[in-house]
Design a protein that fits this description.
24% of the residues lie in helices and 26% in strands. The chain is of the alpha+beta class and 368 residues long. The two termini are 19 Å apart. 39% of the residues are buried. Helix 2 runs antiparallel to helix 3 and helix 4 packs antiparallel against helix 5. Strands 7, 8, 10 and 11 form a four-stranded antiparallel sheet that branches.
């Protein structure tokens, strides 16, 4: 469950102008011209008038890298809008009451307060005994997520998925971490189509062609295990399938750079590089986070290019959970204060793992 929180080199912009030769020297300063060889049109006579020669001149003007990046982003977003086409927007269904948790199951500190805890500044490191507990929580989260994925079918409601997930978690003696976190009313997050994350399960039936991210976190023996995956419902369009595949690959690329001593900023760089190959946007608002006895803590894991300082340390656990969009990376949060959708209605996909930093790499803990 995610936590919500320039180009330096000059580029060139071509501009064409039909101008008389006499005005050539009065355009831009010579220092800004890259190419200005005129294509001359010779004099012609029309009636009693003689038309002076005119020249087609191609200018090249230096502009800032930021300007060029913004122009490219706008063009890509317009192209993506054509790709995902008109799809009925996501609508809120009926939300049923929160499900009960047996009294004997240990709860995280926030469970009964409905308050949204602040991000803890504590980095979470683990000795061998703590790692065993951490692995048990993460393994359970992975099994629950795999089970939830088998329920994704047309006509099934996200509320039904929530009930099944809740039952499996409490039968294992664990607490569903999202329940009661900042007042979140359900035991799992279900984010459909244009929902980036934190979707609240409700009475809406899944449709053939939907994509749905299911985000599972369990609290077992004092430790949180956190993972998510985007599933295909029925037969989505090839464009949506490509988005989902690329998002999973971005997660894999991000994990691949992790090891003791590696810079955190490498994660965002690698994810951005891969997403850009396909023209997808990487959402900036939501981040990965440290996880363990505390649900959300430092380090903050940024999934786009950044210069955030800090290096990974052996024994540390955190999540990587990139969200990619087919269109705009801007978002809108519904009045429920949780459900966050893309501003332009374009599809979004997300994948997440909890990892343990080792001397030579990273161990994925949320893998069955």
């Amino acid at each position: 469950m995610g936590f919500g929180t320039s180009l330096n080199s000059a580029s060139l912009k071509l501009s064409c102008s039909l101008t008389s030769q006499s005005s050539l020297s009065s355009s831009w300063p010579k220092s800004t011209l890259f190419m200005g060889a005129p294509l001359t049109f010779y004099p012609t006579v029309s009636g009693n008038q003689l038309h002076r020669p005119r020249s087609l001149v191609v200018y090249s003007k230096k502009i800032s890298g930021l300007e060029e990046a913004m122009r490219i982003r706008r063009e890509r977003e317009m192209q993506r809008t054509k790709k995902f086409g008109k799809v009925p927007p996501l609508r809120r269904g009926r939300v049923s009451p929160p499900l009960p948790v047996p009294d004997h199951i240990p709860r995280p500190p926030y469970a009964d307060t409905k308050e949204l805890p602040e991000l803890s500044s504590e980095h979470q490191f683990h000795d061998s005994e703590a790692i065993v507990r951490m692995k048990a929580a993460c393994e359970l989260a992975a099994r629950v997520l795999n089970f939830a994925g088998t329920l994704v079918k047309p006509s099934v409601t996200t509320d039904e998925i929530d009930k099944a997930v809740h039952q499996m978690i409490i039968e294992a003696g664990a607490y569903p971490s999202p329940l009661g976190y900042g007042g979140f009313p359900k035991s799992v997050c279900t984010s459909v189509n244009e929902c980036m994350c934190h979707g609240i399960p409700d009475s809406r039936q899944l449709q053939d062609g939907d994509i749905i991210n299911i985000d599972v976190t369990v609290y077992l023996n004092g430790y949180h295990g956190d993972t998510s995956k985007t599933f295909l419902c029925g037969n989505p369009s090839p464009a949506r399938k490509r988005l989902v595949k690329a998002t999973e690959e971005c997660l894999e690329k991000g994990i691949a750079v992790c090891k003791d001593g590696a810079s955190f900023k490498k994660i965002g760089k690698r994810i951005s590089e891969h997403a850009e190959k396909y023209g997808y946007g990487v959402v900036e608002r939501f981040v990965g986070h440290g996880v363990g006895p505390i649900f959300h803590s430092e380090p903050v894991i940024i999934h786009h290019r950044n210069e955030r300082p800090g290096v990974m340390v052996e024994g540390q656990t955190f999540t990587i959970e990139p969200i990619l969009t087919m269109g705009s990376i801007e978002c809108v949060t519904w009045p429920d204060n949780w459900t966050t959708v893309t501003a332009d209605g374009s599809p979004a996909a997300q994948f997440e793992h909890t990892i343990l930093i080792t001397k030579t790499g990273a161990e994925i803990l949320t893998k069955c």
